[in-house]
Amino acid sequence: MEDKLDEVIKKYPVKVKSRRRIRGAVLLDTDKGLYMAKIYTASKKRLLFEEEIKRILTSAGYGNVDYAIKNVGGELLTDDGNGNKWIVKKWYNSVECDIKDIKKVMLASSNMAAIHKIMVIGNRGIVPSARTDKLDIESLFKRHNREIKKVHNYIRGKKQKNDMEICLLNSYQDFSGQGKIAEEFLKESGYGSLGMEALKNGSVLHGSYNYHNIMLSDSQVITTNFEKADIGLQVMDLYDFIRKVMEKNSWNMDMGISVIEAYKKERELGEEEKKVLYALLLYPEKYWKLVNFYYNGKKSWMPAKNYEKLKRICSQEQERHKFLKEVKKLLI
Fold first, then answer.
1. Any residues with CB less than 8 A from the CB of 315 and at least 6 apart, and which?
2. Predicted model pTM
3. Which residues of the chain, if any, have pLDDT below 70?
4. What is the dihedral of CA 213, 56, 35, 205, to 10 degrees?
5. Cβ(302)–Cβ(311) under 8 Å?
């Protein structure tokens, strides 16, 4: 890989002083600043969509993104001679957002709202990846609820059950009930019209707005990795961010409310968006993920860490319910 990267670097107008591996990529310290090189596996069409979103952000005055640079041939992708396509992107001397620091988390939430306001591309002739199934949250909830019930029935029919299976059985009633309530609440939220509006306006969500992709340099926020950006409900970015923050902070109520307030201060949420956000937070996604992982994994041996995760989310339920109660007052 190192030899191939050398061949790739030769095709860029930079001189590399040093390099080091970072998560899934190589950080390059060059005479023109920091860059990041990685193998790009999606299509060129997909890359052009991502880079157009970044161009729109930069044109609007938000330049803190990991935009790709062109090689000496004017191309964004570079072949290493071994069939791999490489991309070289602008990078920053920064650190990942500390998800335990409320001030930094609020800064990241405000930054999300700021880019959401810009990422409404309208009729610009930009062709997204068209994964519009992201808009059909109701079908997603229904499918997940069916899967939870299916796994429950499977475990119940087993003669011998391990500790995780017993825990899944004991927690089924509570979590499956939450899933059904979230599904019913979503039906009444008017989210369908919200999806149609997102398609009409060309509203883009980041798709992976988490602390790994939000970098901080002093008081500046850098947004990276737009690989999952697409037309969709931007409020889903907010939901994903809140859920991850809350899970890492044992559903600390002040932290969660601060994230929502920081976002609303920069971009006000519509009434339908508030209802959808509440429905998303109400749905027991982490529980479903563990159920799904269990069912699709090797049942004769389950990683101990998954059992620990299940016990942890069960132990956090009381604090989670307190948070949901306050969020409902704030949003509904």
1. none
2. 0.93
3. 1-2, 123-134, 298-302
4. 20
5. no
